[in-house]
Amino acid sequence: MTATPVNIIAAYAQVDQDDSVKLHRQIAHYQSTIESIKHLEINPIQLTIEPLSVDWHSEQKENHFRSGCAPIIALKRAQELIAQGHDAIVISGDEPLKSGYQREERHHLMAVYADDYSIAQLYNDLADEFIKYNKISDEEFLELADALFTNHSRSHEIAIQQQRAHFASPGPKWFNHVTKLFRGVDCANPLIDFSGRLLLCSDSLAERLNLDKEKLVKVAGVGLGLLNIDEVQQLPRIARYEHLTEAYKSACKEADVALNSLITADKVLMEIYTCYPVVPLAFLISSGLVASMDEVPAFLSKHLMTITGGMNLARAPWNNPALNGLIEMYQQLTTNSTHQYGLVHGNGGIGYRQGIAILEAKHASL
Questions:
Q1: How far apart are CA 330 and CA 34, in angstroms?
Q2: Measuring CA to CA, which residue among 54, 276, 107, 56 is closest to residue 183?
Q3: Quick count: other Cβ atoms within 10 Å of Cβ 135?
Q4: d(CA 28, CA 16)
Q5: DSSP 3-state assignment of 202?
Q6: Distance CA 92, CA 59 (A)
Q7: How many Cβ atoms from other residues are within 10 Å of residue 283's Cβ?
Q8: Closest CA to 188 of 347, 343, 344, 329
Q9: Pairing between strand 217-226 and 268-271?
Q10: Taking the complete model, does pTM exceed 0.70, yes or no?
C-alpha cells in the first residue's frame, strides 16, 4: 500500500561551532520556509529526538524518540501524522554531547546497560554471534572491518574535498584494538555537538507554498523492524538481523522500487549506520546486496556505504546519527546531484531496532 506523500522541504545540521556560509544559507532557507508555513496559520508538529541527558530507561513522552533508530521511527510517525491531515512536521535533535556534560557525567549516562558491560563489549559479543551465524572466522571478520574502514575513508575524503567534512582523519592511536574484534577506527566516535532540523510537509502544502522542485525530496518509503528487547540474552536473535531484512523489504515495497539493482548500478546514495562493523555487514547481507560474506570485499571496492565517512569519521551525536544522515542526504539530493535516490539506515541500541528510509529527489534534471 502506497503511503501518503511526504516531502522534505528544508533541513540543516550544525556540528560543533560550524559557522560556514553554507550553513547560514541552509538555516535561512529553513527559517524562511517555516515563516511561510506559519503565515498560512499552520503550526508544524514537533517530533523530538531525545538527548543523552534524558534517562535511557525513563518513560518516553508522546512524539519523543530515543535510540539510534529514533530518527527513522520519527520519520514513520511524520508519515502517519500527514496521513491524518496534518500538513507540516519538524523532526529536531539537539545534542551538546561534547560541551554539555562533564566527562564523568557523559560516561555515566552512556552506560545504559550493566555498569560492568560496556557498549563496546556488547558489540564485540554481538559480532561473535554474527560470526558464528555467518560461518566466518575472527580473522575474516577483521579483514572485512578493515575493508569497511577503507570504504568509509574514501567517502570521508570526498566529503573533505567538497568541504562537507568537519573532522580530519584519525591519528595512529585510533588503529589500536579496543576489544578483540574492534579497533578505535572501527567504532563510532560520539564526541560532537549537534543541532539538526528536518522540515516535512504534505503535497498540498508544498503546492500552496509554491516551492522550488529543486528543494523537494520525497520520503518514498520507510520500513521498520523492531524487536521487543535489547538485552544481552537477545544477542543471538539480533545477530540474525531478520528484523533488518523486514525493515529493508518494507521500505522498498512502500517506495515501489527495485533498490538493489539501482544500488548495484551506483544510482543510490547511501548512509548506512556504521557504529561497529557488524552493523553495515549485517545491512549488506540482510538487504540481499551480497549473498555471503565472501562477496563483501568486491562490493565495498565498488560502492560507497556512506556519504559522510560514517559514524567513525563524521562522528556520532548519540541518538542523532540517522537524523544527521537524513539531513545530509537531503542536501546531497538537492545540490547538483545526479542521483535520484538516497537510503538512510538507523540502528537502535545494540541492534534491536532497525529502520530504513528511502528518499527520492524531485528536481528537474532527473
A1: 17
A2: 276
A3: 9
A4: 18
A5: strand
A6: 19
A7: 26
A8: 347
A9: unpaired
A10: yes
Please report, in angstroms and rounded to a whole number, the separation of the first and last CA atoms in the chain: 25
Count each helix (H run) and each strand (E run) in the chain, helices first: 13, 9
**pLDDT per residue over 5-14, tens digit each?**
999 999 999 9
Residue whose C-alpha cell is 539538526? 196
Cα–Cα dist 267/14, whole Å: 28
Averaged pLDDT for residues 144-148: 98
Contacts of 297 (CB under 8 A, 6+ apart): 143, 144, 147
Other CB atoms within 10 Å distance of the CB of residue 278: 30
Q: Shortest CA distance to 289 belongs to which of 264, 271, 322, 312? A: 264
The vertex-146 CA angle with 318 and 172, nearest 5°, equals: 75
Identify the H or E element spanning 82. Answer: helix 70-83
DSSP string, 120-147: HHHHHHHHHHHHHHTT--HHHHHHHHHH
User: Grid coordinates standing for 207?
Assistant: 503546492
Residue carrying C-alpha cell 563489549: 121
**Look-up of cell digits 572485512:** 144
In the numeric block, the cell 567504532 is attached to 187
- Do residues 281 and 299 lie in contact, with contact meaning Cβ atoms separated by under 8 Å? no
Evaluate whether the domain defined by 6-361 bears CATH number 3.40.47.10.
yes
- Grid coordinates 567534512 are at which residue? 165
Number of CB atoms found within 10 A of residue 273's CB:
30
Q: φ and ψ at 201, to 5 degrees?
A: -150, 165
Segment 148-175 mean pLDDT: 95
Identify the residue with better confidence: 24 or 117. 24
Bridge partners of 199, per DSSP, are 10, 90
Name the residue among 244, 204, 214 with its Cα closest to residue 88.
204
**Cell numbers standing for residue 8:** 522534505
